[in-house]
Amino acid sequence: MMSQRRGIHVDQSELLCTKGCGFYGNNAWQGLCSKCWREENQKEKQKQIQDDWALAERLQKEEEEAYANRHQKSQAPTNATPFSKFEERKSKEKSSKVNTVTKFFIPSSKTPQKKDAASLDSQSSPSPSSSVSRHSSVDSDQATKEFIDFLRPLKSGREIFKQCRAFTESMVYKRDMGADELSECVQDFYQNLSDRLHTQFKGSSDHVESIMDEVEKYMMTRLYKEVFCPESTDDEKKDLATQKRIRALHWVTIEMLCVPVDEEIPEVSDSVVKAITDVIEMDSKRVPKDKLSCITRCSKHIFNAIKVSKKEAASADDFLPTLIYIVLKANPPRLQSNIQYITRYCNPSRLMTGEDGYYFTNLCCAVAFIEKLDAQSLNLSTEEFDLYMSGQASPHWPPATGASSISPSSTTLSQVHKRLDLLTGLGQRQERVMEKARQLENDLIDWTDEVEQKVQSVLESFSPESQTPAAATATVGETTSAASSAIDSDNVENELLPPPLQPQVFAG
Amino acid sequence: MAAGGAGSNKTYSFKVVLLGEGCVGKTSLVLRYCENKFNDKHITTLQASFLTKKLNIAGKRVNLAIWDTAGQERFHALGPIYYRDSNGAVLVYDITDEDSFQKVKNWVKELRKMLGNEICLCIVGNKIDLDKDRHVSVDEAERYAESVGAKHYHTSAKLNKGIEELFLDLCKRMMENAQADERLKGNGSSQSASSWRGVQIVDDDPQATPAGGCCSSG
Prior knowledge:
The complex is a heterodimer of chains A (508) and B (218).
Chain A: H1 2-8, H2 34-75, H3 86-96, H4 100-105, H5 117-123, H6 131-134, H7 138-151, H8 157-170, H9 179-201, H10 205-227, H11 235-248, H12 254-257, H13 266-281, H14 288-310, H15 316-330, H16 335-345, H17 348-352, H18 355-372, H19 382-390, H20 411-467, H21 473-490
Helix pairs in contact in A: 2-3, 2-7, 2-8, 5-8, 7-8, 7-10, 8-10, 9-10, 11-16, 13-14, 13-15, 14-15, 14-16, 14-18, 15-18, 20-21
Chain B: E1 12-19, H1 26-35, E2 50-57, E3 60-68, H2 79-83, E4 88-94, H3 98-115, E5 120-126, H4 138-147, E6 151-154, H5 163-188
Parallel strand pairs in B: 1-3, 1-4, 4-5, 5-6
Antiparallel strand pairs in B: 2-3
């Protein structure tokens, strides 16, 4: 009792503010009093803000550098020595740099010396609200930084960045536009930019592609929250409908879809699991291109599963059913939203001709198939299909009437059955072992008893001899022979025992 | 889709879909073309559903992307998703199987209805190594192909017959189409930036967008 009371006793000094100002502190404020806590907290917040500003400043500087680089070229395109003016340009830049930080957050009203009409227009647009700065989160900053790094070695990097940024910021005003119009805007922007890059780089389409990838990455990372599953569309409703639909189709088996995959092979089931993981992972990515690579990875795992099962290269006839099966198993989150987002905002050339585009198309097909799926497409009768859909029957446990018919039971179920059988067999064997063990134990007990008895009887029979070693030989001989015969009669079954000791007659 | 483009050293990218019933040999055909292998255990590709081939025709570079489609009847309704924005379609039937030829006819009807004459069609009678079991007459097939403005080819993936010719001819025709498109674009000067969406767009007025036009609307 005493010790307990001592445990909760708090010294007066512990209640005071840890700063020693004399007021009482509070645990919620890290032991500080309200006054000291406010001061402390203010300091931390200030530090955070300063850090943020430092980052912003750094990014802005980099941007300026890129600009200087670019600007020089555009100013003197005929000049053979672009680097000669570099330093001069830079110093000029510094002097003209006013209020760089605010400029980073708010698209400056300061007109750049650049003669590009498009960016000029958007730059001089009315100053936006602080909402622009609000969604420049850590991710976006990272994306901006990477984008600037990527563009730095390009001679038109500055211009590209300016345009992308201006366009991205202009999207904020278009929030009340429909999703289709927004996507139209973005696609027009992609198209214009890539056309211009094509003329600039004279047919080096690989190069243009890589720039476009970065442009997409930068823009979509920043716009993701605005344009993914927007409220103006019924994407969310569709997501829920698809999710419900897939859940209702949980009973669809490999056999019904004619999927050429044998999940009993460990490598195959491994690939299936990986494919499922990949298609689920798609939702966590922001950039359309990253989402597409998730689908591509998923497809590659499917191909591997098919190849291991069938021992030949997978054709579309094998691939699509397997993909449908994977989608049914995975039930990927926000599937429709993701598909819509990719269709609306992905770089069109990737979606139309590339390998990624092919797999994406197949995913769209799989979703379309699942939506329209009916009895016929699973080779079932309408009654069966309705029974399964309503949950009144399951292909794994056919209704009583269909007991004789060979129902297509799933492989997992048959595996479970097999393992159950195995377990029962093991149980039986275990019992048998236990029985034998008990018998052995009994035998052992019997044996020890027997041995004890024998030893006892032997001891008894020998005791008179030991006690009277010098008895009359004749009588001893008689009694021992009688005793030995008695012992022998006890041991009839055991012939291995050494012959009993014969009394020796000492004459003399 | 923007397959064309300015500049003489432009690389053409074409999308070709393979359509046809299951088991007519679509996959064998494309594997023979891209890998020159038939029923081979040493096929290096993991899959035979999406294959690419680089060609050089008359000094022009061509990237061919061949999209295989699932041939089972139950997936027939998904066709439009596959063949939208295609430049060409290869419609394969099995010469020993009358049904598969009927399927090709259905596909042709559908393609012409959905995509009009923009798409180059090739009708291909596969498995001519099994000529003794032929059930589709050469005459009928060729007459039909001509009537719908398609080229007809006889191939054998097993014997590697007719496949190179088929794809080469298809490429040439697609290039002609693309060049005609370019000329049209050049005359009209209005660049339909919305063409990326293919069949999804019903009727969008392709307004002449000046460079960076969408940025100015901010």
